[in-house]
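Regression test case RT-17, inverse folding.

Input:
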């Protein structure tokens, strides 16, 4: 049997690695690395830095492959993701078949937490279900950007007796187009995977925002305040950061201003 570990490595800071994750790293023979291009070399470098820092007295190796590309602006987002995951599944199967033998342990190091907006678990589940391989797998949770951003801003995700919705920029825009108002499904809205700055739709409303890019890394940028006051700053910083790094990984928490919130 081959063992696969899906390890959450946190939102960018090696100090976010949990004891459980360290133990998992020290069980692994082969780490599967997907190369997403020169602009994202830092993501590969961080994974290798984590291995070098936390693995002790154990030989390990890396199996690398180029990650499939996908059309981010496609109208039918769901179908694009299904096709992408199908391609990734074929790639995962090849990596495991060619680089892992029975009795060995392989691992995918997932940015943040593998249970949140990541397809690695689903892809491995699909591979196991084919029955073509004798594979068992475990999932090790990590500190997500949701937790890391709230901690960096010294705030909480929820207010007393209220809820938080974790969603994507695409879904926030869809909601705004229906109601032209702040989402009413939750008191606080945490937005991830936002390519176009969905927050700008609410810049005239009485909204607080806690924004961050590259949280937990040396490139970290943080902005907080009334959305109407800082929206321009966030847009400028996003543009500058994307130009400097070739990519941006940001997220933010929005909620209606409430100066009388109970403690």
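Golden output:
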């Amino acid at each position: 049997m081959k063992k696969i570990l899906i390890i959450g490595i946190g939102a960018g800071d090696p100090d976010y690695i949990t004891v459980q994750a360290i133990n998992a790293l020290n069980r692994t023979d082969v780490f599967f690395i997907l190369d997403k291009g020169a602009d994202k070399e830092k993501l590969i470098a961080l994974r290798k830095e984590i291995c070098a820092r936390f693995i002790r007295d154990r030989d390990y190796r890396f199996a690398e492959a180029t990650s499939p590309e996908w059309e981010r602006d496609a109208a039918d987002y769901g179908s694009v993701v299904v096709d992408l995951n199908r391609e990734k599944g074929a790639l995962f199967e090849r990596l495991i078949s060619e680089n892992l033998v029975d009795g060995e342990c392989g691992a995918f190091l997932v940015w943040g937490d593998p249970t949140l907006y990541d397809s690695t678990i689903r892809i491995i589940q699909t591979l196991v279900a084919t029955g073509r391989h004798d594979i068992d797998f475990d999932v090790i949770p990590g500190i997500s950007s949701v937790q890391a951003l709230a901690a960096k801003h010294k705030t909480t995700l929820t207010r007393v007796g209220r809820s938080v919705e974790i969603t994507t920029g695409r879904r926030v825009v869809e909601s705004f187009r229906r109601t032209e108002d702040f989402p009413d499904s939750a008191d606080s809205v945490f937005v991830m995977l936002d390519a176009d700055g969905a927050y700008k739709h609410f810049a005239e409303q009485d909204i607080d925002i806690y924004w961050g890019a590259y949280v937990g890394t040396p490139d970290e940028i943080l902005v907080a305040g009334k959305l109407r006051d800082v929206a321009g700053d966030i847009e400028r910083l996003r543009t500058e950061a994307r130009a400097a790094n070739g990519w941006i990984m940001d997220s933010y928490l929005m909620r209606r201003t409430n100066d009388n919130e109970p403690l």
